[in-house]
Write a structure and sequence with these properties.
This protein has 97 residues and is an all-alpha fold. Helix 1 packs across helix 2. It folds into two domains: 61 residues; 35 residues, no CATH class. It is built from three helices and no strands. The protein is elongated and about 75 Å long. It is 78% helix and 0% strand.
C-alpha cells in the first residue's frame, strides 16, 4: 500500500482511512489470537494446578514415595552441580520443610 502510493498522498485522510480498513482484519485476528492464548493457558494452568495438588497429596500420604522422589531430586542435583548453582541464583534454593 505504501509502495504504490505517491508521497503526497501518504498521511492524507483518504489514504489513512484505506489503510485502517485494510488493517482491520489483521488487527482483529491478532486480538482474537491473543485472547485465545490467554483463555487456553488459563484452562491449562487450572488443570495443572489441580494435578500438582493431587500429586502432592499422594506424596503426603505415601512417605516412601516422598523419600524416593526427594532422593532422586537430590541425587540429580549432585550429578549436575551447574544446575544446583543456577537454581540457587534464581532464588529457588529455599526449600520449605
Amino acid at each position: 500500500m505504501f509502495l504504490d502510493a505517491p508521497k503526497e498522498e501518504i498521511g492524507a485522510p483518504r489514504f489513512l482511512a484505506r489503510y485502517a480498513s485494510g488493517r482491520r482484519f489483521d488487527r482483529y485476528a491478532g486480538i482474537g489470537f491473543t485472547d485465545f492464548l490467554v483463555r487456553i493457558s488459563r484452562i491449562l494452568l487450572r488443570r495443572s494446578r489441580s494435578a500438582r495438588g493431587a500429586g502432592l497429596a499422594v506424596l503426603d500420604v505415601l512417605p516412601p514415595a516422598r523419600r524416593f522422589l526427594a532422593h532422586r531430586m537430590i541425587s540429580a542435583l549432585a550429578r549436575y552441580p551447574d544446575a544446583a548453582r543456577a537454581l540457587s541464583r534464581c532464588g529457588n534454593s529455599k526449600i520449605r520443610r
